[in-house]
Amino acid sequence: MVLHELIDYSTLKVIWWLLLGILLIGFAVTDGFDMGVGTLLPFIAETDIERRVVINTIGATWEGNQVWFILGGGAIFAAWPPLYAISFSGFYLAMFVVLAAMILRPVAFKYRSKRPDPNWRSSWDWALFTGSFVPALVFGVAVGNVLLGVPFRLDNELRMTYDGSFFGLFSPFTLLCGLLSVTMLVMHGAVWLVMRTTGEIAARARKAGTFAALGGILLFGVGGYLVVSGYVEGFRITSEVDPNMQANPLAKQAVVEGGAWMRNYADYPVLWLAPIMGFLGMLGTLLLLQTRLEMPIFAFSKMAVFGIIATVGVSMFPFILPSSVQPEASLTVWDASSTHRTLFNMLVAVVIFLPIILVYTAWVYKVLWGKIDEETIERDNHTAY
Amino acid sequence: MELNVVDLSRLQFAMTAMYHFLFVPLTIGLSILLATMETVYVMTGREIWKRMVKFWGTLFGINFVLGVATGLTMEFQFGMNWAYFSQYVGDVFGAPLAIEGLMAFFLEATFVGLFFFGWDRLTKRQHLAATWAVAFGTNFSALWILIANGWMQHPVGAEFNPDTMRMEVTSFYEVLFNPVAQAKFVHTVSAGYVTAAMFMIGISAWYMLQGRHLQIAKRSMAIASAFGFASALSVVVLGDESGYEANLNQKMKLATIEAMWHTEPAPAAFNVVALPDMETRENIFAIEVPYVMGLIATRSLDTEIPGITELVERSNDRIRQGAIAWNSLQKIRENPAEASEELRETFRQNADSLGYAYLLLPYTDNPMEATTEQVDAAAWSTVPNVWPMFYAFRIMVACGFFFILLTAVFFYYSSAGRLETLIEKRRWILHVAVWSIPLPWIACEMGWFVAEYGRQPWIIESMLPTTVGVSSLSVAEVLLTLVGFVALYSTLLVIEIALMIKYIKIGPEDGEKIAPNPPPSVSAPSPASAVPAE
């Protein structure tokens, strides 16, 4: 008996699909509010001390949050190597823009308050904005492109060629997805600021969060309509697929078809929970932002992020990266994963480490919890950013 | 010179990796030194140790963020620029990267926030635990990335599957306990320790020369020199272990490091200085020390070390064998379901050399029809440029021995309690320490160069040539991002160095305005206290 055969290959593939979903949602929920806060920074805080308040609400924890992104990359590499290879080389310039923006973020946090010069500080504030807004936008645009199908081809040796261009990434639908991503994260970040700040800043955050939630509901609705109406076509596998097959994306047949992204909902109506959570989350956030409540809004905001991302995942299952020019080369959960052995070994690593990570992350948040205001900054002048 | 995607992608990877590696060794070493100093603080309760942790912690932080920022690029560059490589080896190579995230990055990134922000919110012991968590995280991170890198140098525990067109894990255990990876890990990590120690020694020496912050400078000197001396010894000993492993697995790398064009009778001599000529394939000039090379590389007096020419001849055979594997692979791929067992057997028997057939692709479309000249040219393409290897290695080793000497001197003076003698009488030694601050970085970069450039033309040793691993990108795209990264990284590096210098000049008292009421024990007020607070 070989250890990794304890779990079926096909079951492992589905487990990894769920795990990667959890990682991406973990990234959007944790680093998401950091990006939202960073995007709001230049608009919500005017004086230097206000900006320091805003920055310090995320200053001590953004670094751990960003690891969800790095881990997401590593996990995709390990679990779906062709996805890692094709998406990052296909979206090459977009990835460069994201990386360049994200590189600015750590540096901006750390270096901003190291000099008192207002120009210096204002430059880093804009760097923080860029490092937050640009990835939020590009990730959404990328998801939109994935839903539409990406123009890549695979040859017999699985070498990829890409027919698209950087500007080809932007279409009305993908821009809509990009904006939805930005509004979702801005809403999430605004809710975070409501919880972690007081007075003027918190009041402005409530206002910003309200607008973002409204925008999010609208954009999610329009996006959903475009998919339901068949304006955005989906993909469907037309040949027999053995879920236990060895990885080989070229072994199947697939077609582009209007309404294909709705098939899973027809087959499993329980999946409607995902978009419903997306809407309810945003609606709840919108309504509660008008009250004096704080913590429960965050729960709704998290639910919104969860629901929106899960909606994309379940609509596409089992597809993970459809090809618009060679549909049979599309990557799916069944034919693009790593070997049985690697998936199992990696699962063992996740089962050991993920709970540990969650426990210490929760502890760190608990230690650092509390409202941040101008007094806190002045008192902790030597440690605050 | 005509630009092509492979060269530009290599240049970009080398550039981003070497920039990343400017920050990583210091992070690895300084995190351990911080944790050690804080342990002393918790055990003795003496405030001065806390102030040391805060001061060196400020410099650590300035450096750490750039390690994080540049590391982000590394994580995604495999997919961006080396897509075929990623697809080819992801089943093996992706796992260590993912585990690095799970086990190491989360730990260091989550607790580094507490390290800086947790002083007033945690008990002494809790804060100490956070500091150690950062140190462990950083070091684990090095472990996993070097397991991944070690596998590229010596791909064990995996085999090629013609149906999925990729390398697949056969033994995870072998991948983890790859001797090359383990040797590289201990060598690299101790190089990081030396870097941090030399950094602390150099800056402390500068304070001593200036007569500032003497209390902190002396204590830092003591701890850094002890730590640095032990690490400098182990970096050389463990580096020798790396050389031994290289001889077992990467004979060409070893031969080029030595500029050894032909197999010599055992035990081989060591070339101290040489002028290798790639055209005539011999050394124009060389100074040799008999026996030494044989001892280092084989740990014996009677084992031969193959020279470059002989290794090229071996490549010749493997290229021909690889062509057979390549040919049967094409047939299997055309119709995997119907491929005969005989065909698969032919493939299996030659699969080990498949990578060698790819070396022929720049010369011919069909490796089976390669001419003798083409096979010869492909075989010679397995030789990296000799002189950069030869000298990079020697610069690294020279630095290594110098570090042993310098740390030993300071270890002697500080453990004998005679640092005052240095300040009063032998100030030149302190000057040497200050001017030596950049040397560990040079040594680290040289070491990286020897390891990675010496692996060429392979991206996975003997399995996949670098030219095959590249993404389908245009020259313009890669050039654009290359220029972008260089500009961005260089700007950040300049800012980083300026901030480092600023905070070193300010010194411990006002470094991060750490002590609300400075203890009276500190040396005379420095001009730095005039510097405006943050």
From TrEMBL, chain A:
Cell compartments where the protein resides: Cell membrane
GO MF annotation, one: metal ion binding
Enzyme class: oxidoreductase
Annotated membrane topology: Multi-pass membrane protein
Membrane spanning residue stretches: 15-41, 53-77, 83-105, 126-150, 170-195, 207-228, 270-291, 303-323, 343-365
Coiled coil: none
Main location: membrane
EC number: 1.10.3.-
Keywords: Cell membrane, Electron transport, Heme, Iron, Membrane, Metal-binding, Oxidoreductase, Transmembrane, Transmembrane helix, Transport
Biological process according to GO: aerobic electron transport chain
Listed GO CC annotations: cytochrome complex; plasma membrane
Keyword Cell membrane: yes
NCBIfam families xref list: cydB
Family designation: Belongs to the cytochrome ubiquinol oxidase subunit 2 family.
Protein name, entry field: Cytochrome d oxidase, subunit II (CydB)
Organism: Roseibium alexandrii (strain DSM 17067 / NCIMB 14079 / DFL-11) (Labrenzia alexandrii)
From TrEMBL, chain B:
Region (Disordered): 515-534
This enzyme's EC code(s): 1.10.3.-
Transmembrane segments: 20-43, 55-73, 93-117, 129-152, 185-209, 221-239, 391-416, 428-451, 471-495
Localization in the cell: Cell inner membrane
Range of residues in the leader sequence: none
Biological processes annotated in GO: aerobic electron transport chain
Record's keyword terms, sorted: Cell inner membrane, Cell membrane, Electron transport, Heme, Iron, Membrane, Metal-binding, Oxidoreductase, Transmembrane, Transmembrane helix, Transport
Residue ranges with Low complexity bias: 523-534
Domain of life: Bacteria
Membrane-topology descriptor: Multi-pass membrane protein
Cellular component aspect of the GO annotation: cytochrome complex; plasma membrane
Major localization listed first in the record, in broad terms: membrane
InterPro entries recorded: Cyt-d_ubiquinol_oxidase_su_1 (IPR002585)
Short name of any one Pfam family annotated for the protein: Cyt_bd_oxida_I
Gene Ontology molecular-function annotations: electron transfer activity; heme binding; metal ion binding; oxidoreductase activity, acting on diphenols and related substances as donors, oxygen as acceptor
Family in the record: Belongs to the cytochrome ubiquinol oxidase subunit 1 family.
Protein name (Swiss-Prot/TrEMBL): Cytochrome bd-type quinol oxidase, subunit 1
High-level lineage: Bacteria, Pseudomonadati, Pseudomonadota, Alphaproteobacteria, Hyphomicrobiales
